[in-house]
Write a structure and sequence with these properties.
This protein has helices at residues 31-61, 66-90, 101-111, 120-139, 154-164, 168-181, 187-203, 209-213, 222-240, 265-268, 280-285, 290-303, 311-316, 353-371, 385-395, 402-407, 420-435, 437-453, 461-473, 492-495, 501-512, 529-537, 545-550, 552-565, and strands spanning 142-143, 151-152, 248-249, 333-336, 343-346, 475-476, 481-482, 580-581. With 598 residues, it is mostly helical. The protein has 3 domains: 31-113; 133-272 and 442-495 and 529-586, no CATH class; 275-418, no CATH class. The longest helix is centred in the first third of the chain and has 31 residues, at 31-61. Mean pLDDT is 85; it is low at 1-28, 239-243 and 589-598. Its EC number is 3.4.-.-.
Amino acid sequence: MGWKVHIVICCLGVVQVLGQSPVGTAKDGTVEEKARKFVKKAEEELTKMTEKATFIDWNFASNLTDENEQKSLASKKVMDQLSLRLGQEAKKFKRSDISDRVLIRKLKQLSMIGISALPEKELNRYNTLDSQMQKIYSTAKVPSKDDPSKLLSLEPELSQIFAKSKDPKELEYYWKEWREQSGKKMRDHFMENIDLINHAARLNGLRDGSELKTQDYESYTFIDEMEETWRGLKPLYGKDVVNEKGPIPAHLLGNMWAQSWNNLGSFLKPFPDKPAIDVTDAMFEQGWTPKIMFEKAEDFFLSMGLPPMREEFWNGSIIEKPDDGREMVCHASAWDFYNGKDFRINQCTIVTEEDFITVNHEMGHTQYQMSYANLSYLHRNGANAGFHEGVADILSLAVGTPSYYQRLGLMKDDVDITDKETNINLLFNTALQRLVFMPFGYLIDKYRWDMYGGWADKADMNCHWVKLRLDIQGVAPPVKRSEEDFDAGAKYHVAANIGYIRYFVAHIYDKEAGERLLSMISLGASKPWKEVIKHMTGSPKMDTGAFREYFRPLEKWLEEENRKNGVHVGWEVEDLEKYCQASSSGRISHNFGIFLPL
């Protein structure tokens, strides 16, 4: 699920700058003509500089040496200077004298300087913190429980342990040690990062970092809209997912972060005698490799009438972890190098069904990137980050279905998906991956918004994370946490300062828009996302109805089973201090209770 595309101007909005005169009068030519020439030149500069910067960042991400880090920081400094200069020039234009809506929107994009608004010393510090946090995460190693002299990485070793192990003590050890070696080591970095992001927000005329980080969604009420969307989904979770009185220990759910539970599917499926999807063993038996996984993904997109991967893709991509001892970012990502021909994927692929789905997802990003590669710089992106994730999902929608695996020879042809019990098994497996993900997809950025906005005290920022995990997900840490820890930093997107709400948004789009989204991919970011969603659905608002309808058969079955077996639904948390020791100076709300449908 990890898309990375290098955009210098990441935020949209309008900022008033004092002491600057508007450009253009009736005497010296129209403002619109001057603005159009300025934007054209600005986009040419940005394209050229972004191409160069992306190669530098790729080199650092794929080989985390000190030398490459310094080159990356120097590149960011140049890009920040360009962003600042173009932003200041863009603000001089009197937009009321311009009638072209596309031109006005581009000026807004250029005007919102974002982090580049920070004074030079603070900006350099921000970029250094950003680089250090990602490096801490990507180089973290955990001593083996059985042999402390052996160090294990998250990918592939720890991820495989969480996917396969049924030993609670082993899982608890690795859950705790990963957070010791990743999040805990960047706690101070994150605290400083909050202050710098909030300062940049104020310099841009915004309230705090939550507004700065959501500006590219072009909605002043976006955070409220996300809360409303989450409320629309909550009934599914109160009824269907957690059926114990207390929260579930987070280390027992088959994933380092308990963000999806699909690795539990083999022994949780409702009808054990009926088939469910799990083709990992078949992939091994048939000698699949990461290269074959990527080739099969390309074949799938070719069958949809989409273009093949370019030669640059196959020559430049990293599709499995190199064995030369280098440290690198293993989180899967798709890269656009802004030269119209070089698109790559970085993924430390292992041969599993889950990674095969990720391969198709990342190649879906690449297909989207190639589809808008002919557009101008400011339109070379998704309508918003959630659209990019949604398109990647929808382009690979058929992957993971029995019919597709049968075509690949990974599943027997006698699986009858029309059988009610088999269908419940398939829906249940999908729910363990996608439905279970939704609370996590919401809470990552909910947590950061709370920190930026002061809803939670920095002195109690880890206990606030634990609180949200309990309240929204219904999962609890296996060992008591404290304010010496920073568990949020154990997740890549927090360490790498990448927004996460995009995945929550994308899952709604998947069910709401379906294949209608595909008709819009060549538009890139040339239209505001609410116009795009209105074109597809008839309404600019996100609607959870289609998502809930998709899981209705499973919801009905679970209701019947819970009623028949007298199962308690929801979860209760009586005392936060059982799970996290808050600081004496901080403040944190303790409004826990049963998570019931509204």
